[in-house]
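Hi R.,

As promised on Friday, here is the backbone we talked about, encoded as structure tokens. Could you run it through your design pipeline when you get a chance and send me back a sequence?
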């Protein structure tokens, strides 16, 4: 049985004050969040403060990105050892916004996955197609290419040390959620592709869905057999909404 996981990707949002308010709200309701592992991924500058506020709770800390390099002259970058220092358990790699706005390529994302894994942090590997690709019917090709880059570098078993997040880019921040069936189809495709190489890894790896998940649509999405939780953007900035998504992960 795979444990459900719900991660909030706060993206470039928040302030010291708003984050305190958000975390207070989440922590207040945490006792009713039972089955899912809950993760929050604040902007880098707030990691340390959030870590302190999470002390003694069951909520884990994650980063939104990380450098593939160890240390040195990489201005503006953050290393895996810095994330470890702040007790990050998770690091998102290859988010579609990193790929599309900052030009991260599959090879670089795979290198980030490897660096995170080597540090003993769980990489959350994001994959997903843009609208044009879905309309052209190449969703599976795109997702396979993104996944295969990591498999080529690290081997298929490495995927079990991390988490995969399927985020159709056309569903991110648009209010257009993939239907549970559309999401399930791609999740099953991902799991089957992994299973061809390692059935054990395929059975183990958690595959999250991301893209306009809300309290209202989470129960149906999370009831799908290959959807093991969610990577939540906008709705993770609202404590009540986030908690109701976490409650849907059973
Ligand atoms: P939204 O939930 O705002 O659509 O964002 C999804 C996402 O990109 C999470 O990483």
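Update: got your reply. Pasting your designed sequence below so it's all in one thread:
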């Amino acid at each position: 049985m795979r444990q459900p996981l719900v991660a909030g990707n706060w993206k470039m949002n928040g302030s010291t004050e708003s984050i305190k308010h958000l975390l207070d709200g989440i922590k207040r309701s945490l006792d009713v969040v039972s089955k899912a592992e809950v993760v929050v991924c604040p902007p880098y500058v707030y990691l340390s403060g959030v870590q302190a506020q999470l002390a003694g709770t069951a909520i884990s800390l994650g980063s939104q990105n990380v450098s593939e390099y160890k240390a040195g002259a990489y201005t503006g970058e953050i290393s895996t050892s810095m994330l470890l220092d702040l007790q990050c358990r998770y690091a998102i790699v290859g988010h579609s916004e990193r790929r599309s706005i900052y030009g991260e390529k599959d090879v670089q994302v795979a290198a980030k996955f490897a660096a995170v894994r080597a540090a003993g942090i769980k990489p959350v590997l994001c994959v997903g197609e843009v609208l044009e690709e879905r309309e052209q019917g190449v969703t599976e090709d795109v997702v396979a290419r993104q996944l295969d880059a990591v498999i080529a570098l690290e081997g298929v078993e490495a995927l079990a040390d991390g988490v995969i997040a399927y985020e159709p880019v056309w569903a991110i921040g648009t209010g257009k959620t993939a239907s549970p069936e559309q999401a399930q189809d791609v999740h099953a495709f991902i799991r089957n592709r992994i299973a061809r190489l390692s059935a054990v890894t395929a059975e183990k790896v958690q595959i999250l869905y991301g893209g306009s998940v809300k309290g209202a649509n989470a129960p149906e999405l999370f009831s799908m057999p290959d959807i093991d939780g969610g990577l939540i953007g906008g709705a993770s900035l609202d404590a009540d909404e986030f908690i109701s998504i976490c409650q849907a992960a059973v």
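One thing I noticed while checking it: The chain has a mean pLDDT of 96.

Thanks again,
M.
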